[in-house]
Write a structure and sequence with these properties.
This protein has 363 residues and is α+β, with helices and mostly antiparallel strands. It is 28% helix and 37% strand. The protein is built from 8 helices and 23 strands. The strands form 7 sheets. The protein has a 5-stranded antiparallel β-sheet with strand order 6-7-4-10-11, with no helix packed on it. Strands 19-17-16-21-22 form a 5-stranded mixed β-sheet, with helices on both faces.
């Protein structure tokens, strides 16, 4: 019996020494979200995976995962601690030899912005629970929350009327870039419309005939200078409304802003004209990443928009405060747009009777 006890003690000491030496060796950890772009309040999954690749068990393993400060976990039974800047998710487990433990946690984020799932700390205990060893695991994943959709009936109808005029006007405006033929000069056409090549062939003055069905295009200009945080959030929502209405009407559109963005997505302050789900997604994700920092004054933004616009292009200006069409800052843009400017103000959004943001509002 004594020999058996001695052997048992020696075996326990050997296992203890082995667990101390190989505590975190062969232990892996990952944490990733199921999606990278979500709507405010939309549910997604966080998947955590802990693996033990060695042939000896890990009697005690604790993970502490750093999460966004405002993340909301649904039906999680473990320990969760929210702090002003980050939240921490705690979990403990036992891992047998060559075992993998996967957990899926339902979560959501309530507000627009870029969120990070960053480093985690894992701690392994020895067999007898006398000591612990810890290490930091590098984790980096982004989740972008899009601007909240808005239900603003008056503004939506007004914007729809403006876009309707843009759609109709493209059928009555001649496009000097698309020449489809020539016709006789009547004396009412400007001299720049005379086609000298056709005139020489015909022996009389002929003028160019243009294609009147050229596609119209619109630029959305988002200004974030001079607004309170809630006003700026309303601006992002209004800009989203404009983008989605342009998509619904099949009008090609570009985008400019003076907002700074978080994350490496290139020069997002300007998106060339285009159309389609991918085009809209690039703009909406950029607005989800945008901060309240201002990269340039509104006057400079308006001038940049005018310089990058062809004559007659319509513009939708989204701004935090009051802005009239005859505002001096809009003079270059007004001249380039032939007066076709529509202004969406965050103050108008706030003043709408019964207004409230809605995630599933119809455009």
């Amino acid at each position: 019996m004594l020999i058996f006890l001695i052997l048992l003690v020696l075996c326990a000491v050997g296992c203890e020494l082995l667990s101390l030496r190989r505590g975190l060796k062969g232990v892996g950890y990952t944490c990733r979200p199921s999606v990278s772009v979500v709507e405010p309040g939309e549910e997604f999954e966080l998947e955590t995976a802990i693996t033990n690749d060695k042939w000896t068990p890990v009697s005690f393993l604790e993970t502490v995962q750093t999460l966004p400060h405002d993340i909301q976990l649904n039906a999680y039974l473990g320990r969760f601690h929210s702090e002003p800047l980050v939240s921490r998710l705690y979990s403990t487990c036992y891992l047998g030899p060559r075992q993998k433990l996967t957990r899926r946690i339902r979560a959501s984020l309530p507000q627009r912005g870029r969120r990070l799932i960053s480093d985690a700390q894992i701690t392994a205990g020895d067999l007898l629970g006398l000591s612990r060893r810890s290490q930091t695991v590098q984790v980096f994943h982004e989740i972008v929350v899009l601007p909240r959709r808005t239900a603003a009936p008056d503004l939506s109808r007004a914007l729809g009327g403006f876009l309707g005029e843009v759609s109709v006007r493209r059928f009555i405006l001649e496009d000097p870039m698309l020449t489809v033929g020539a016709r006789d000069y009547t004396g009412r056409e400007p001299m720049k419309a005379v086609s000298w090549k056709h005139s020489l062939r015909a022996g009389k003055l002929m003028v160019k005939e243009f294609d009147y069905t050229v596609e119209s295009s619109v630029t959305v200009v988002l200004n974030v200078e001079g607004g309170e945080p809630q006003q700026l959030e309303n601006c992002f929502s209004l800009a989203r409304m404009a983008v989605e209405q342009l998509e619904a009407r099949g009008l090609s559109y570009g985008f400019l802003t003076n907002a700074a963005t978080a994350g490496a997505i290139g020069r997002w302050s300007e998106v060339s004209a285009g159309l389609g789900a991918g085009h809209a997604r690039a703009i909406l994700e950029g607005m989800g990443r945008a901060t309240h920092d201002v990269q340039e004054p509104f006057e400079t933004l308006a001038l940049r928009a005018a310089r990058r616009s062809e004559q007659g292009r319509a513009h939708i200006v989204v701004t935090p405060g009051r802005l009239l069409e005859n505002d001096p800052a809009l003079a270059p843009l007004r001249s380039q747009s032939d007066g076709r400017i529509f202004i969406l103000s965050a103050l108008d959004l706030q003043e709408q009777e019964g207004f409230c943001p809605e995630e599933e509002a119809a455009v």
